[in-house]
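S1.2 Input.
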Amino acid sequence: MAMMLCGAMTASAQQDKDASAGEQSLFEKVTNIEKKQDNFHLLLNLNNSFDVNQGNGELESAKFNMHEIRIEAKGKVNDTFSFRWRQRLNRSNAPTPDGLDNMPATSIDIAGIGVKFNDVVSMFLGKQCAAYGGFEYDTNPIEIYQYSDMLDNMSIFLTGATLQLQLSPDHQLQLQAVDSRSASMSDMYGEGYEQSKVPLVYSVNWNGNFGGVLSTRWSYSIMSQAKGYQSHYVALGNQLKLNNFDAFLDVMYMREGIDREGIVSRIVGNNALGGHQNDAEYLSMVLKAQYRFNPKWSVFAEGMLDNEGFSKSNGVIEKGKYRTAYGYLAGLEFYPIKNSNLHFYLTYVGRHYSYTDRAKAFGADDYSTNRISLGYIWQLPMF
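S1.3 Output.
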């Protein structure tokens, strides 16, 4: 633990890549003055669309939806110290009662400082993205049309420290220790659990690059959930890039002492203590392919599969799979401005939830949802 804590002090590379890198800022366009320093960047992250939603074959709603609006400021004071802050403007900014870090649970993604010792060793202290693996997870949230079932229910922005070791130009190792939750025990797990004295998540993350063709985002994490309960999480992300074509496959497995995501607990109901069920098990796979067939046009397709259940029986809850969640996406993107990340999109997102007989014994039933969205995504560099 001491080694991890001392080592866990660097800036996580997760979700740190700017789609607008190299794009002229709004300030430069308005003033016609070129910004020649890298000390401060102000970004506005937007995802807005008109959505038509359907459930089990019936129209549920047709409306405009601001999916994402996040403001971000980052830069460096000098060659050693840097800073970063990103906040969701359409989330509550009130600190969570009984939370570990005295921070809002959902509005602030990132808030902290980075320290670069040399070209090999750097660190980050503050609220940040947990150092989990996977390429879908590593993508800026405004670029995601639909997360897999497991990622959609994970809390990933936590307060702590990360150590980043640039082992070579192509390989990076991260060691991280962060609080295991930002919400209260009762909000996260329900009643009946005793708080751990050291409620932390420890993660090891390897980011690899093999000739610019194959890349990896692999991680292993162990989390202290409550006294006597732990969670283990493995994420293996693999990406292939060939000219204007790229594809990735993420495989993620989680085994939890307490059902933190709450997916299978909601299927069978909370336990007698009023908390989430114990011994939950999740396996999630995401496969996505994208082809930029023209400088202004791109097409993509994505498939998702989530198996959800329990790893142990408790006399009432039977061990095994309770639900399979399928996801299927396809879309077209249009980039109207040269050297800009602004793009309009037309996407279809389908979901189907299939329950096993053991889940149907608790009243669950299969259902499907569909969504067609027409909108835009823009990481606007304001300064």
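S1.4 Remarks. The first strand starts at residue 41 and ends at 55.
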